[in-house]
Amino acid sequence: MSPDEQQRLAAWLRAHVAAFDGELRLSRLAGGQSNPTYRVEAGAHRWVLRRKPPGVLLASAHAVDREHRVMAALAGHGVPVPRMGGLCEDPAVIGSTFVVMEHVDGRVFVDPALPGLPPAERAALYAAMADALAAIHRVDVAAAGLSGHGKPQQYLSRQIARWTRQYRDSQTEDIAPMEALIDWLPAHLPAGLDEHPGTLVHGDFRLDNLIFHPTEPRVLAVIDWELSTLGHPWADLSYHLMAWRVTPDEFRGLKGHDLAALGLPDEAAHLARYLGGRPGPDAATMDWLMAFNMFRMAAILQGILARARQGNAAAADAEATGARARRMAEAGWRQVRG
Questions:
Q1: What phi and psi, each to the nearest 5 degrees, are found at residue 96?
Q2: How far is it, in rounded angstroms, from Cα 30 to Cα 4?
Q3: What are φ and ψ of residue 197, in 5° steps?
Q4: Cβ atoms within 10 A of the Cβ of 260, count?
Q5: When comparing pLDDT for 106 and 63, which is higher?
Q6: Cα dihedral 141→147→153→156 (10° resolution)
Q7: Shortest CA distance to 81 belongs to which of 102, 100, 61?
């Protein structure tokens, strides 16, 4: 961010964010492949700023305004989220829309194997993660003022169409398994899935989008809500469970790890914790959902790769991360073929 942009940002923060007082100190935070993220400090106070990246963007991508809306609405509704500080949609300030939120002190884990932690703590962290996802899906959407946050009807059909478009708009090479999934998924959509009345779905619920308490196995904040909408909770669930079916090399997976030795639940146990006795998808439906989410993740990774090659990626490792699109598409097609 240029010195002029920082000066304009400081003026906006003083006018719009409570308790902002003193000289602005800005530092880039690591992580996040979509929206550049910064730590904002002034005096004794700290916030987090997330902005849309500069340059030409895919339609409906990088929706920090959407993040602000849903996190502001969720305050007091059973899902831990940061307190919102403000939303600026005026590009004259720093060149793109940005949101300011509370800085939550805690732990963020990237590797799902949780290296360096004792097995009992790993198990407790995974239980807290399953409980946080269940809490999202229990939100009373109307009471939270989120009835207009999406269209749950034909959610999965529309998701296939959306991510096919996103993939086409960012395509850099031919990936045969991706073409196969684009044809196969709508033709084999399980009966009844598109008729679900819908719940709030996070859209990117995984370990590194949670902030845990510094010492306790407790989720302090669920972050990165830009893909949130109203839809089928099993789509969210299966995206989260995908970690058990992909390798670390494919995308931050657990496949190949000795879960018992690590103290981690297997897929069935983690699913049971989330369900808490409620009915869940049968095996065939879960397999379709897994293939769908691998296709979806491949499309997301393809978008990251395209942004890296255009020069407006949010993370330094965007090229390497985006290059995993082919591996995820291959994993999705293996899921279909058994």
A1: -160, 165
A2: 23
A3: -65, -20
A4: 10
A5: 106
A6: -60
A7: 102
Do 155 and 235 touch, CB atoms closer than 8 A? Answer: yes
Strand partners, 223: none
pTM: 0.91
Token pair recorded at residue 7: 């000066």
Is pLDDT above 70 for 23?
yes
Q: What pLDDT, on a 0 to 100 scale, did the predictor assign at position 310?
A: 74
Look-up of token digits 């959610």: 155
Helix pair 325-337, 283-310: axis angle to 10 deg: 160
Pairing mode of beta strands 37-42, 45-51 = antiparallel
Q: How confident is the model at residue 321 (pLDDT cuts 50, 70, 90)?
A: confident
Q: Is the pLDDT of residue 43 over 70?
A: yes
Structure tokens at 109: 């884990």
Length of the chain: 338
- Segment holding 125, helix H or strand E: helix 119-138
Per-residue pLDDT at 225: 94
First vs last Cα of the chain: how many Å apart?
48
**Residue 216 half-sphere exposure toward CB, CA atoms < 13 A:** 6
Of 279, 292, 278, 199, residue with least CA distance to 242: 292
Which residues touch 31 (CB under 8 Å, ≥6 apart)? 37, 108, 110, 208, 315
Average pLDDT over residues 243-257: 93
| Per-residue pLDDT, 61 | 55
Question: Residue 250: which of 314, 292, 294 has the closest Cα?
Answer: 294
